[in-house]
Structures are given as structure tokens and as C-alpha cells.
Amino acid sequence: MSSISETRKQQILDAAADFFLKSGFHKATMADICSSAKMSPGSVYRYFKSKEEIIEALYIQKWETSRSDLKFFLKKMESSVIFADDLVKNLLMGLSMKKPFDPLFMEMRTETLHNPRFGDIERNGFLALESELAQAFSKAQQRGNLSLSVEPEKSAKFFITLLQGLVMNLSLFPEMDVMAYSPLFHKILE
């Protein structure tokens, strides 16, 4: 796709996301999205066949961003001698700096209950994050910077699950001090 096409596609996604935040997925129509994007229906349908396709593209984009952010973060952690301390501190600080959390992501997650395709995206997103973190744990063990008693796959799954729980809680309680949970995350990496 050309850069103009990518720009137009992103314009539609941004407009749809804004509209979904105001009205929710179920109340939104393609006409609403076209109006919000300031584009004709023909232009919008050139890129997306349906509202569900737009929601799916937004959801995939959010998971890809999460994975990319995690990979970037873990790459910086490769030189850390105190891997567990730096990992916990930086991940939790990153969470607290991203306030307020994107309520659209929360709404997307509830859609996984109704749409099997979204459930697949959710599962694949979690598995990708877990895989990245498990690989980082294994590499840290090989460098001698993480206890060999840590089981990389299980610990990564548990770690990601806890982080996602904090994200959900931060959407409800934005004043929550995530750094207070640091000792609990450290226990996983002992």
C-alpha cells in the first residue's frame, strides 16, 4: 500500500476509534464512521468492508503496538546486570506513565466474548507477549542475570496476566499506585 493509502487507512481507524470511545461499538454505524473520518462511504469501503473489519484492524494494531513496545523495552534490558529489579521497576513505571488507559482497548476485550475472531486476536496477542518475555527470561538466565529457578514460560504467562490485571484496574482506579505491587512481581522472579 502507498503511503497515501496508509495515511487514509489510519485516518479511518483514528476517526473510528474516536467515535467508538464516544458511542461504543454497537451504536456506531459505517455512516457514523464515514462522517467522523470526513470521508465518503466509497472511500471508507475501499479500505474496510465492514465495521467489524475496522474494529479488528484497531485491535490488531493495539496488540502489535504492545508487542513492539515490549520488544523495544526488553532489548534495552539485555545489558542489565540486575535484570529482575530493572524489569519490574521499568515495566511498572511504564504502566503508571501511560495513564489514563485506553478505554477502547477494554471495550475491544469484551468483544472477544461475542466474536471468535477477536478471541483469536486476543489469544495470539497474549501468546506473543508471553513468548517475548519468556525469551528475555531465558536470555537473562544464560547471562547469569536471573535465577535458574525461574521457569521462563510459566513465569512469563503469570507476569503478563498480572500486568494485564493491573491495566484493567488502572482503567477503573487511575489513582492506583502500581509501584506498590513491585514486591509481588519480584517474588515471581526469585
Automatic annotation (TrEMBL):
Domain HTH tetR-type, first and last residues per copy: 6-66
Keywords: DNA-binding, Transcription, Transcription regulation
PROSITE patterns: HTH_TETR_2
Keyword Protein biosynthesis part of the UniProt annotation: no
SUPFAM superfamilies named among the record's database cross-references: Homeodomain-like (SSF46689), Tetracyclin repressor-like, C-terminal domain (SSF48498)
Record-annotated DNA-binding residue ranges: 29-48
Keyword DNA-binding among record annotations: yes
Coiled coil: none
Cited InterPro entries: Homeodomain-like_sf, HTH_TetR, Tet_transcr_reg_TetR-rel_C_sf
Name this protein carries in UniProt: TetR/AcrR family transcriptional regulator
Provenance organism: Cohnella suwonensis
